[in-house]
Amino acid sequence: MCWTEERTLFIVMDYYPMTLKDKLVEKLEETEILHFFKQLMKGLKHIHEAGVIHFDIKPDNLFIDEFNNLKIGDFGLAASTGESYGENFAGFVCFDTYFRAPEMQYLSRNLTNKVDIFSAGAVLLEMVISPAMNAFDKMSAFEDAAMGLFPEVVDADIAQFLKQCLAQDSNKRPSANEILSMKF
C-alpha cells in the first residue's frame, strides 16, 4: 500500500525479519538452497512477464519471512523491458560486482531480463559456497566462475547449470520460465 501527503510518498510493506545474506552466515542444506532458488525463479518469472527487469538481484535484496519464504525486494533500479537505458544507466554502476552481469559492466544499451538470470546464478553460487569460504577465496570463486571453473564444494550438476546462468553471452542464458521447467 502506498499514498502521498504533501509531496511525500509513503510505502507500507510486509515485515521480513531477515535477508538471504543473513541466512548465509550458516551453511544451507541442499533442500533449502533449492527452495530459495525456485522461489527466486518464480519471482523473476512473474516480474519478467510483467515487463520488468530488476537489475539488482543479490542476497541483500532477497527477503526471508518467518515461514522461510523468499521475496524479491528493493526495486529501486528496476526498469521496464525495452526501455532505452543509454547514459541514464551509467549512474547505476554501483551494483555488487559478483552479481552484476557482464553486459552491465560495459553499459550495454541492449540489456534484457537475462541480467537478472546472471545475478540469480551468482546468488545460487553464493548459497552453495557460503560460508565454507573466506572472503578472498569467495572472490576467487566468483572470478573463476566467469571462466566456467567452480570450487570442489560445487556439485558437477550444479556447476553445469551455473555455466548456463553465468554465460558471458546473455543469449545463452535460460529464462526464468525455462529454469522452472528443468528438473532439480
TrEMBL record:
Keywords for this protein: ATP-binding, Kinase, Nucleotide-binding, Transferase
PROSITE patterns: PROTEIN_KINASE_DOM (PS50011), PROTEIN_KINASE_ST (PS00108)
GO cellular component: cytoplasm; nucleus
Keyword Glycoprotein in record: no
InterPro entries tied to this protein: CC_SR_Kinase (IPR050339), Kinase-like_dom_sf (IPR011009), Prot_kinase_dom (IPR000719), Ser/Thr_kinase_AS (IPR008271)
GO molecular function: ATP binding; protein kinase activity
One Pfam assignment: Pkinase
Domain of life of the native organism: Eukaryota
SUPFAM superfamilies, per the entry: Protein kinase-like (PK-like)
Keyword Transmembrane among record annotations: no
Residue intervals of the Protein kinase domain: 1-184
Family: Belongs to the protein kinase superfamily. Ser/Thr protein kinase family. GCN2 subfamily.
Cited PANTHER family: EUKARYOTIC TRANSLATION INITIATION FACTOR 2-ALPHA KINASE 1, EUKARYOTIC TRANSLATION INITIATION FACTOR 2-ALPHA KINASE EIF2-ALPHA KINASE -RELATED
Name of the molecule in the record: Protein kinase domain-containing protein
Organism, as annotated: Lithospermum erythrorhizon
